[in-house]
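ok so I'm stuck.
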Amino acid sequence: MVAILEAVADAQGSVGVRELARDTGVDKSAVSRLLAQLLQLEMVEQAPGGQGRYTVGPRFFAISGMVAARDSLMAAARPIMRSLVDDVEETCYLATVDNNELVFRDKADCHKPIRYVLEMGRSIPLHAGAGGRAVLAAMTPEEAGVVLRQAPLEQLTARTVIDPDALLELAEQDRGRGYSVSIGERVIGGTAIASPYFLSDGTCRGSLVLTIPSERLRVGLVPQLGAAVAAAAKDLSTRLGYRGTWHDWRPVHAEHP
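replied:
not stuck anymore, here's the structure
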């Protein structure tokens, strides 16, 4: 049942029984039975005008809202992200590192009609994009090297850096200035600027990521935006109990919940 609910939540729009069976590997008749139970529980609902198609239901949204409200990380990050967005007028994402991958968990949108939008809740590799590279910069060079050499790195765009040695050099540069920058490395036309944040014990938990359509970015603004993101990440770290500096971090722990 959990797999079905996750698949419904992950769908872009509504989803049908056949698609759910294909995506989850659950038999179609079993999918239908589980959907009937989830309908009764109001965890899913019939899509308007879409016979046999489903979307997330009101009870699921209510439970999700309660969980998010109790999440101390999100509660700490939201006012800081909102303040950053109000200052720079670009969208900010909260990302966490889990099992050496990055997951975007929350965001504060800017009001501009054209935005660089990231997919929430989906894991992405650390090597592609500023958000993950900021986490690599928060590792020791030795641990970052281990992470980068575990498996071949995927070339997502023509600008994706996939050479581990080059990525380690970039991480060293990022440590020196306090933020990471990527232009079209994960999504063509998208620029991101990110800085890591830390828990009270000095462990990096993830990064704050500012996203900007590349056509709107002026190169001369990068240091100003980078400093703003780094300051916001420092504020978040302080709110989470961290009292050190960039040079006091500990390696990222993949097993961290």
